[in-house]
Write a structure and sequence with these properties.
The complex is a heterodimer.
Chain A lengths: L1 E11 L2 E10 L4 E5 L6 H8 L7 E6 L2 E2 L5 H11 E4 L11 H10 L6 H14 L15 H12 L6 E5 L7 H17 L3 E6 L2 H4 L4 E4 L4 E3 L3
Parallel strand pairs in A: 3-8, 3-9, 6-7, 7-8
Antiparallel strand pairs in A: 1-2, 1-4, 2-10, 4-5
Helix pairs in contact in A: 3-4, 3-5, 4-5, 5-6
Chain B lengths: L2 H11 L1 H36 L4 E4 L4 H8 L10 E2 H8 L4 E13 L2 E6 L8 E3 L2 E3 L4 E4 L7 E4 L1 H7 L6 E2 L2 E2 L18 E7 L9 E5 H7 L13 E2 L1 E6 L5 H11 L3 E3 L1 H45 L1 H9 L4 H42 L10 H17 L1 H8 L3 H6 L2
Parallel strand pairs in B: 4-12, 8-11
Antiparallel strand pairs in B: 1-14, 1-15, 2-13, 3-4, 3-10, 3-14, 5-6, 7-11, 8-12, 9-11
Helix pairs in contact in B: 1-10, 2-8, 2-10, 2-11, 8-10, 8-11, 8-12, 10-11, 10-12
Classes of the chains: A alpha/beta, B alpha+beta.
């Protein structure tokens, strides 16, 4: 599903990211773990096409994404990837259901007539059937993360990228969110890439990739 | 969920700032709209009224003053001319109708206009439409001295109706009673008729027989003359307006008087003085719009800085940089368009209030705020300026560094 080869990206003067080889199978659940600053997020950004590599190839679902134009890459990202960030996942002016529908707005995967039904179903599935029309400001952090999970799966995405999704949650809520994420991705047979610095969380996933050493100093 | 909805949601999310920005656009638009409307409407009305008579003949002096005093009953007269001139003019072969005008007195600030009764049945044609500015609504025309027919606005303001009596005040400016040089207590007027509202200066006039004016001012004449020798002006209706210039030259050459074409004087007034006033006011209006555009730009720019994370999330969800650019431009466009609509409505209200004032002060009715070519052009310029104001913030949004802003949680 995801293949990275000889991928290099300059991060600053004398610092670069280099991933010689990385491979993820379809439907797998992989934790990218390692200490802060080791290059986990850079790796996710490269896989999702939010950053472009200077050399090397990244193949996602059979497509070499570094070859895509900006516009096509944006659409590709919207259709293939779902995101769950650590915090501030949702857009403040929109309600929970609108936030989920927003995920469908920027891709052609789901017909517009089905947006509302699908968003409602997903929100019910994550236990927020009673919060469809609530704005993020009125929701707890855990509820917001659950909306983000619903949004990440709204387009029948093939890959969910979760960047420290429980980093801002108390242990009980974090466990709940993590359970939900694993369950939903498993249910929908979605490939999951999860970034964490917490080995305990990483160990909950069947696959792990140690990112230590991906970012290194180079002589100019 | 269109880009319009997304843009509107962000505007709604910061209601107060949006409302204030919108209001500033509206104020500029209202100012521009009102200036254009008042200028167009007053010009139209003045020119319309100016064409009621082809020529005005009066004492030598300022032609504009003569027109304003004799046609619009607004300014002081230029002086008096011999009644004999009127007598000769009305018999001239080119003249369809001639009406003497004798000014000198007022009642509660409304002018007493001495003339002949046939002015009441005077009909003229404007663009194929017949106009009768001094048409009776009630009563009859004056038939003898000290009978008066009052304009509709005079009747409304003073409460005068058929059968009532009133006493005129000497002079064209209303003074407190103890300062009045002469009042005519011994010679009250009797109201015999009330005019229909016409939206013309006739609404604010009190028409009476020229004999009334002569009789009341018997003591004002020079030694050796009778009161009946002088009048203020003559309003002349020519059989064909094409003869205006020739007739004017004829009067100026043959008589010790000045002839002028009212509509030409009004056009000059507009082209010289009022055109400058219009330019100044329009410049102020456009400056307000430019300031509003700057406030749109600053407001949006600050909002974009605060929303970089949102932009990055939208990009992560699949929005292209063009869509983000478009959403911001739409925000700017929405504020501008709503500002234009609000300003247009506000301009309507202001024009209406001004119209009421002008109607009461000068008997000039002003139509509602139209959407003339000039208005449309002005509003299009405002819309364009508003749109341009969104370009810089939209560019800022377009260039959002997605990865960096997602990392800055």
């Amino acid at each position: 599903m995801v293949v990275m080869q000889e991928c290099r990206r300059r991060l600053g003067p004398g610092v670069e990211f280099l991933c010689e080889s990385f491979r993820v199978l379809e439907g797998s659940q992989t934790a990218l773990w390692g200490p802060s600053g080791c290059g986990k997020s850079t790796m996710l950004n490269l896989i999702a096409g939010l950053l472009r590599p200077e050399t090397g190839t990244i193949r996602v679902d059979g497509v070499e994404i570094q070859q895509l134009s900006e516009v096509r890459l944006d659409r590709f990202r919207g259709e293939r990837f779902g995101f769950v960030f650590q915090t501030f996942n949702l857009l403040a002016p929109f309600t929970a259901i609108q936030n989920v529908m927003l995920g469908m707005r920027f891709s052609d995967t789901c017909p517009e007539s089905e947006w509302k039904t699908r968003a409602t179903e997903l929100l019910k599935r994550v236990g927020l059937g009673h919060r469809l029309h609530s704005k993020p400001a009125t929701m707890s952090v855990g509820e917001r993360q659950r909306v983000a999970i619903a949004r990440a799966l709204a387009n029948h995405q093939k890959i969910v990228i979760a960047d420290e999704p429980t980093g801002n949650l108390d242990p009980k809520t974090a466990r709940g969110v993590m359970d939900l994420l694993l369950e939903m991705c498993g249910e929908q047979k979605v490939t999951m890439l999860l970034v964490t610095h917490d080995l305990a969380i990483a160990e909950r996933l069947p696959e792990r990739f140690d990112c230590s050493g991906l970012v290194r100093e180079v002589t100019p | 969920m269109s880009l319009w909805f997304i843009a509107w949601s962000y505007l709604w999310n910061r209601k107060l700032i949006t409302a204030l920005t919108l209001l500033s656009v509206a104020l500029g638009v209202a100012l521009i709209g009102t200036v254009l409307t008042l200028r167009e409407e007053t010009k139209k009305r003045f020119e319309e009224e100016g064409q009621a008579f082809d020529i005005v003949v009066g004492a030598k002096g300022s032609p504009l003053q003569l027109v304003l005093s004799a046609v619009y009953f607004m300014d002081r007269p230029t002086g008096n001319i011999d009644y004999a001139i009127y007598d000769q003019l009305r018999k001239h072969e080119d003249v369809g109708g001639a009406f003497p005008v004798g000014l000198g007195d007022t009642f509660r600030g409304f002018r007493l206009v001495g003339t002949t009764a046939d002015l009441l049945s005077y009909v003229w044609t404007y663009r194929g439409e017949e106009r009768q500015p001094f048409q009776l609504a009630d009563g009859r025309a004056f038939e003898k001295p000290m009978e008066a027919v009052v304009g509709s606005f005079v009747a409304e303001q003073t409460g005068l109706s058929v059968g009532d009596e009133f006493i005129g005040t000497h002079g064209l400016i209303e003074l407190p009673k103890d300062l009045q040089i002469t009042s005519h207590e011994l010679h009250p007027y009797t109201v015999v008729g009330v005019l229909k509202p016409s939206g013309t200066p006739g609404d604010r006039a009190i028409l009476c027989s020229i004999d009334s004016v002569w009789d009341l001012h018997a003591e004002d004449v020079e030694p050796g003359m009778t009161t009946r020798d002088k009048i203020t002006a003559v309003l002349v209706d020519l059989k064909t307006p094409a003869a205006r210039f020739q007739f004017k030259e004829f009067v100026n050459t043959e008589f010790n008087a000045m002839a002028t074409v009212p509509v030409d004087e009004i056009a000059k007034l507009y082209n010289q003085f009022l055109a400058t006033a219009k330019t100044v006011l329009l410049t102020v209006g456009y400056l307000v719009v430019i300031v509003s555009a700057l406030s749109i730009m600053i407001g949006l720019y600050l909002s974009i800085l605060q929303r970089r994370r949102d932009m990055a999330i939208m990009r992560a969800l699949g929005a292209s940089a063009f869509e983000i650019f478009g959403a911001v431009i739409i925000e700017s466009f929405l504020v501008t368009i709503l500002g234009i609509v609000t300003g247009w409505l506000l301009g309507n209200v202001v024009s209406w209030v001004f119209g009421l004032y002008l109607s009461q002060k000068y008997g000039m009715s002003i139509g509602g705020l139209g959407l003339s070519v000039e208005h449309t052009y002005a509003y299009a310029v405002v819309a364009l300026v508003g749109l341009l104001a969104g370009v810089l913030p939209a560019w800022q949004a377009y260039r959002t560094d997605v990865a960096r802003n997602l990392a800055e949680a």
